[in-house]
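fyi for ur records
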Amino acid sequence: MKRIILAIMAALPLVVSSVEASAGNFDKGAKKEINMAAKDAAKHAKKDAKEAIKKAKKDAKAAAKQAKKDAKAATKQAKKDAKNGAKDKKGKKAAHSVPEIDAAGAALAIGLLGGIAAIRRERKKKAAL
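which gave:
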């Protein structure tokens, strides 16, 4: 990007000079020289722009490749952790967290236990008859 800006800055005085030359302020040799310099500056600016685009594409490709590599490594580590269990820094298995039971969960658990007890009682009554 810096090269493009520098090329434009270098070409600007030449373009202004070519406008003045076309107005008749310079002789034909100077006009020709200025026009050639302007074309040369435009050529270099175009070349610099192409190089910048190539570099940007190359950088984007490298970044995508690195991101893919990182994702693959993260997936591999996640599979390894799932297989072996998560470990802390010392290499020991890390304790897993147990979710806390709120009031609604406790009521549901007690209800299920009551239902199981009722089913067992009914089965015992049928077996006794």
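Helices lie at 2-22, 28-84, 103-128. thats all i got for now
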